[in-house]
Amino acid sequence: MRRKASLVLLAFAVFFTTLSPLMRWYAFPRLAKIPPSQYQDMVLEAGPATLLDYGTMKARRVPKVTIVQTLKGNVGASDRIEKTAGRDVVVWDALSYVAGPDGKMVSEVPERYIFDAHSQEPVHATGETVDGDPVRREGIEYKWPFLTEKRDYTYFDAQTRTSAPIHYKGTTTFHGLEVYYFEQTIPWTKVPLPKKMPVKGITPQSVEKMGTTRWYSTKRMFWVDPVTGAPVNGQEIHKEELRGGDLLPGGGKVTAFAGHVKMRDDYVASTVALVKSQRTLVLLLTSYLPWGFLTLGAALLALALWLEARSRRPGEPDQAAPQLPEPAGV
Predict the structure, then answer these.
(1) CB 250 within 8 A of CB 295
(2) What are the pLDDT digits (tens) for 284-307?
(3) Displacement of CA 205 from its chain's centroid (Å)
(4) How far apart are CA 28 and CA 30, in angstroms?
(5) What is the largest CA-CA distance in the chain?
(6) What is the pTM of this model?
(7) Cβ 123 vs Cβ 141: under 8 Å
(8) How confident is the model at residue 235, as a pLDDT?
(9) Could you tell me which residues come within 8 angstroms of residue 274 by beta carbon, excluding any fewer than 6 positions away?
(10) Chain centre distance of CA 222
(11) Residues 6+ away with beta carbon under 8 Å from 150
(12) pLDDT of residue 10
C-alpha cells in the first residue's frame, strides 16, 4: 500500500515541478496582455503656468492650466488589424486636451496608438497617427512592458513625432510601491502647430504663411511599477514658444505655454490603487504560482521518498511465503 501511495505522490511531484516553469515561461507571455476595450482618463495640472494671450500675442502668468488625457480602446479597429497582423493587437484612440484657467481650449491633439497587447511593441498599420498626421512609432508610449527592466527604453514623443531614449535613473518607493524612475529630455525642436487653434480664424496654415514657427522642449519624468509596466506618476517640465514671422511684434519669440505639469493628487491615488490590484494578477503568473508549484513538487517528492523508504525498512517481516507440505515419513 505504501509503495502505491509513494508512486502516486511521485507522479504528482513530477507534474507540479514541470508545471512551475511552464506557468512562468509559457503561460505568462500568452495570458498577460492589455485588454482591447480598456478605457482610462487622467487629469494633469500645471500651476502656476505661463500661457499665450492670442489677443495681445503676449505671454501672461495664469494660476492653472489643465491637461486631460484619455485612452480609449477601439475594439473594432483592433479586430481588423489582428486579421492581418497575426497577433493580439490593441488600438488606443488617445486625446490630449489642454484648457486654460477659464476652461477654454488651448490645444487638442488626438492620436491613434497601435501596439502588441503582450509586449507593448508598436504595430505599424493604417491609421497610426498623431493629430491626423501619419506616423511610424518606434519604442513605447504611455506604458512600459510587463516586468520592466532596469535599463533605458525608446520612447515616442508625440509633439516631435520622433522617438528618443528614456533613461532609467534609479529605484525608489512611491505610495508604498517600489518603482523605477525614468527620465527623458527633448531639446528645443521645431514642431507642427496643432490642427485646432484656440482662436477663431487662426489656422496652422495662416500662421505658417506669416513665417511663424512653433518650438517645443520638455523634461519628461515617469515613476513606473516594474511588475505591470504601468506608470503610477508622471510629470513634465513643458515649454512651448512661437518664433519669428509677422505674427509676433518685432519678429522675436514668445512663450506659448510653460509649466511644471503634474498628475492631480486624486488621480495619483486611484492609479496606485488600480496598479496594486493588477500587479497581484501578474505576480500570480510570474512568482506566486510557479514558486508555489515548485515547493509543492519538492514536498511531494520528499514524502514519496519517505514512504518508499518506510516500505523497505529492514527488520520488517516479508509477506508470508506459501508453505509447502512436508513429505510424509516413510
Answers:
(1) no
(2) 999 988 899 889 889 988 888 887
(3) 36
(4) 5
(5) 142
(6) 0.87
(7) no
(8) 97
(9) 230
(10) 11
(11) 168, 171, 180
(12) 81
Task: Identify the CA nearest to 282 among candidates 225, 231, 223.
Answer: 225
Asked, as a colleague might, if the bond just before 48 is cis with ω within 30 of 0, I would say yes
Answer for the pair 263, 233: CB distance below 8 angstroms, yes or no.
Answer: yes
H-assigned helices in the chain: 2-22, 28-31, 75-85, 204-209, 265-283, 289-311
Euclidean distance between CA atoms 131 and 111, whole angstroms: 6
The Cα-based distances of 45 to 49, 125, 266, 300, 330 in angstroms read 9, 33, 12, 56, 116
pLDDT at 3: 66
Residue 132 phi, psi dihedral angles, 5° rounding: 85, -10
| pLDDT value of residue 213 | 93
CA Rg, the chain, in Å?
A: 31
Q: How many residues does the chain have?
A: 330
Give the pLDDT of residue 330: 44
| Weakly modelled stretches of the chain, pLDDT under 70 | 1-3, 312-330
β-pairing verdict for 89-99 and 105-116: antiparallel
Task: Identify the bridge partners of residue 45 per DSSP, sorted by sequence position.
Answer: 66, 262
- Report residue 322 as a C-alpha cell: 506459501
CA 278 – CA 169 distance, rounded (Å): 24
Cell of 22: 511552464
The set of cell numbers assigned to 226 is 516594474
